[in-house]
Amino acid sequence: MGIPLEDRTAQATEVIERLEHEYPESTISLRYSNRLELLIAVMLSAQCTDERVNTETENLFETYRTPEDYANAPQEELAEALNSITYYNNKAKYIRSACQTIVDEHDGEVPDTMDELIELSGVGRKTANVVLQHGHDIVEGIVVDTHVQRLTRRLGLTEEQHPDQIEQDLLSVIPESAWQQFTHLCIDHGRAVCSARSADCGACVLADICPSEKGDSEIDLASSEPW
């Protein structure tokens, strides 16, 4: 079993330094050219791979270019355009509703505050944080997706299970200057090494400080289940 640093802030700093060295070009993988496209892409990415979303939005963004286009699109038409995306019917409803709100209440512009963003249908803190960070250059939180949830629990940075509570724990131990990049580092490491089903601890640059390391630990702290 890896031995984490006694102080969680020190543990977080060490994790960031090692992952930055391992993934020096880590960044968002969704493709978009404006704030609306970013919002739509992030909404579609829930429980769906970024690769699939990028494939789907290549044509979607050519067909629908404005909030009005999405808001006025018939439900069946938009759902059909998204039919390779998980939960495409619900996501079509959320997108149409969110875009109608953008048209009616925000002059057709994607809002730039957390409160306004999370009032849009289908938008929670995770999506809002991504839009703020990459659409408005506003960093006021940490995006907690499934990779961040899994890695931070495995590494002993949090014992919380809900994304909002995990975010609050992380905000207290991760330097503000790293809030945005931390998510991308976790995503890259989660995809390459520390996956949900088969963590490759033998190839992990964090194994020696990870209390979930499979060499000795019998428990995956991310799930609280045996390996």
- CATH top level assignment of the largest domain: Mainly Alpha
Largest sheet, spatial ordering of strands: 1-2
> Span between N and C termini?
12 Å
Largest sheet, described in full?
Answer: 2 strands, antiparallel
Binding site for [4Fe-4S] cluster: 194, 201, 204, 210
Enzyme class: lyase
GO molecular function, one term: class I DNA-(apurinic or apyrimidinic site) endonuclease activity
Cofactor: [4Fe-4S] cluster
Describe the structure in your own words:
With about 230 residues, the chain is an all-alpha fold. It folds into 2 domains: about 10-25 and about 145-225, Endonuclease Iii, domain 2 (Orthogonal Bundle); about 35-135, Orthogonal Bundle (Endonuclease III, domain 1). The protein is built from 11 helices and 2 strands; from the N terminus they run H-H-H-H-H-H-H-H-H-H-H-E-E. A two-stranded antiparallel ribbon has the order 1-2. The longest helix is centred in the middle third of the chain and has 18 residues, at about 90-105. The two termini are about 10 Å apart. The model has no long low-confidence stretch (mean pLDDT about 95). Its cofactor is [4Fe-4S] cluster. This is Endonuclease III. It comes from Natronosalvus hydrolyticus.
Task: Indicate the topology.
Layout: H1 8-22, H2 35-44, H3 50-63, H4 67-72, H5 75-81, H6 88-105, H7 114-118, H8 125-135, H9 146-154, H10 163-173, H11 179-192, E1 219-220, E2 225-226
Cofactor: [4Fe-4S] cluster
Domain HhH-GPD: 44-192
EC number: 4.2.99.18
Can you describe this structure in just a few lines?
The chain has 227 residues and is mostly helical. The protein has eleven helices and two strands.
